[in-house]
Amino acid sequence: MTEGAGIRTGNLPEDLTAAEAGMWQAFRNGSVYDLRDGDADVDDPHGTVAWGPERTVRARIVAWLLLDGPPALPGRVSALKLAGVLISGTLDLAGGTIVPYVELQGCRFEKEVLLPEARFTTVRLVDCSVPRLEAARLQTEGDLHLPRCRFHGGVRLTDAHIGTDLLLNQAVVHQDRRGRSITGDGLTVGQDLQAEMLESYGELSLRSATVGVSLSLRGARLVNPYARPALNAPQLTVERTLYLTPAGLGNPLLTSGVTPARGTRMQRFECRGGIRLDDGRFGDAVDLEQARFVLEDDQELSLRRVQTPELRFLGERPERGKVVLSGARIVILVDRWTSWPGPGNLHMGGFTYENLVPLDAFPLARRLEWVSAATAEYNPEPYERLATVLRNSGEDVDAREVLLAKQRRRRETLPLAAKLWGYAQDWTVAYGYRPGRAAVWMAVLWAAASIAFSHAGHPPVNKDSHPEWNSSLFALDLLLPVVDLGQAGQWQLSDAWQWLSTAMILVGWILATTVAAGATRLLRRR
């Protein structure tokens, strides 16, 4: 066969098989070339039933049609639309410019598909079996659709540029020789990247990828039992929302994002392996509602330095592994206390948020446990951040409780003497956050001392000039270290009464000092 023969006239090349001749004519007509026989088991592209030569076309002929195919019939637009076809050999379109529309449905590829640096308008592979897709630096003006496809040796989309949408819904992707399922480092998607109910076995890598609208992994299942994360996407940029949420199982015509009807069976997002979203930028939100994370002890759900207006941390509590929010900047944190891991498995150093929107019951005691879980060693920052957020929302009482908890946590790190002084401040005025407690202590001690001193012997120091004995004023004069009521120095006490008066003076100084320390802390905070 002479390459290019009959191209200008549209005549059929001489050595085409019957299947290839039919494909050639369908291409010129822009119609679907369907070789399915109607038996679901036979037509299953992922099944074990072999397809014979009557359903087989050579990859070289497919490439010929796409790169330098015959003209369309009058009044028609040429397009490659195949259904139920086996493509033998390696389909190599590397570096080519493909103008015709391409849609393959329920097809099998015998060998890998090579599309690096190729240019397309729109490409749709639907429910196809592909050994491997190699498409680094691929460019499309429109969509790249790969729904329900199965890739046995991975997908490579490094530095690819997709003009509108990238669809991987219900695709099944196994790892390549390097342990990656999908390699999309530097990928750019003009609009949505939808990978709902995706099954990924290996590392899904989206380092420095950019998505123009939303990235949806609703109902996806990511599995990587190896050292690398199951989702590795540092410096990911999503202009709107990242969805790691459930998907409704049912009507396939429902568009992404439609709320499923009540009673619809749901499939949760599940990740068996680490997730790395460090330094990500998300324009609207990161949504983890009902997400399930199955981590090993050395794996992390890492959100270091993430920036987003809203984080919906509403998934299932990880039994193992760590959740890291160090340096993240959030405007609104929506969460449940049942979603956060326990002590030692939560890290929030430098984590800032401006508003808290707890779902279900999230009492302050639980919130303090949340902060404590993030500070295996004492760190004032999480307490102060929580107190600031509560104060800004008008919850001053809760804010004071948080700061009191901070002082109590700090006390455990102090040497013995400072710790004892801390207990004194706590018992008396609660580190200045409950100043009314000092008045209660003062009133109780004053009343008890007044009654006790009413039975004490009290010879005057100066028999010629002394005030009238008043046990209540005497007790109050001892308790108030600065104010002189003219009683404490006028009477001689002996034995146990002298020790009691000395103790009253010491207690008075302790109360005064703790009140002063608490007031200073209160003024400094304001």
From TrEMBL:
Keywords: Membrane, Transmembrane, Transmembrane helix
Bilayer-crossing regions: 499-523
UniProt keyword Transmembrane helix, yes or no: yes
Domain of life: Bacteria
Designated name of the protein: Oxidoreductase
Organism in which the protein naturally occurs: Streptomyces nodosus
